[in-house]
Amino acid sequence: MPTLAATIVEVRAAVAAAVQDARGRGVAEPRVALVPTMGALHDGHLALVARAQDVADVVVVSVFVNPLQFSETEDLDRYPRDLDADLDTLAGVDREGRASIVFAPTASEMYPDGKTQTKISAGDVGNRFEGRSRAGHFDGVLVVVDKLLNIVQPHAVLFGQKDAQQVFVVSRMVRDLNIPVTVEVVETVREDDGLALSSRNRFLDERERLAARVLSRTLEAAESAAVSGIDAVIAAAQSAGMGEPLVQLEYFSVVNPATFRPVDDNYRGRAIVLVAARVGATRLIDNESIYLG
Ligand code: PAF
């Protein structure tokens, strides 16, 4: 069973004890990895934990639904929470010789004054794509990630490629602020039919679940057309994405991974195709890396 820490003092003590233990077992310089999550753990999170276990001797999984990253129109209370189930899930993937610690603080432990007076801005990228419909979302993500990094002080922090824009803004914060941590990015885990795993998938009813396949189909079509250039990608994605009455496209874009800005017509090289859609009442996102010829 993982060690459960609810406070900052407890998690720091648990990490220090686990590092000491690892030294006792002959690991000269034990490494610590952090997997930040909002709980409702699924196989996508477990892929992060597995990678963390590969790169570190002590793995800390934080489970914290961060109020700062929810906009006023989003329902913070509707976000799925089940710490006992998350602990069971993590107990099932504990690896011998790898200490696992779950840090599950309350909102008042993380934000004793309600919210931080100090802000971190994700810059103009933070207002595009996901940030457009979720004002302040990425600023809130950066504050909590920075706090978690300061609390746990890991060597590595792991994120899923499914949240490509989050990966971009966090990696830039780490670089901009010289935070001494390696950002490890783990590939998106998908259902057999292509749907990217997400804590929100549980809100889809049967018909919506089937309709949601259109997101990965759109990305596959874009990827197949990539050798022929951006116009072909857009045309292929449009025809793959048509005709699903339950799906309302929010955005589709092809961005330069170095800037997270849409590529222009002459761009050649690696790019990321982004898609976001509402399937019934549930908002889903997905992305795929392509090589534009
Ligand atoms: O990706 C998430 O679940 C959250 O944005 C994160 C990184 C745990 C910060 O709250």
Span between N and C termini?
49 Å
CATH topology of the largest domain: Rossmann fold
Mean pLDDT level: 96
Reading off the top of the CATH hierarchy, the class of the largest domain is best stated as Alpha Beta
Describe this protein's structure.
This protein is an alpha/beta fold and 293 residues long. It folds into two domains: 184 residues, 3-Layer(aba) Sandwich (Rossmann fold), CATH 3.40.50; 90 residues, Pantoate--beta-alanine Ligase, Chain: A,domain 2 (2-Layer Sandwich), CATH 3.30.1300.10. The strands form two sheets. Strands 1-4-3-2-5-6 form a six-stranded parallel sheet, sandwiched between helices. A three-stranded antiparallel sheet has the order 7-8-9. Strand 8 and strand 9 form a beta hairpin. Helix 6 packs across helix 7 and helix 9 packs antiparallel against helix 10. The radius of gyration is 20 Å and the shape is globular. The protein starts with a strand and ends with a strand. The chain binds pantoate. The site of pantoate has 10 residues, from strand 2 and helix 6. Pantoate binds next to strand 2 and helix 6.
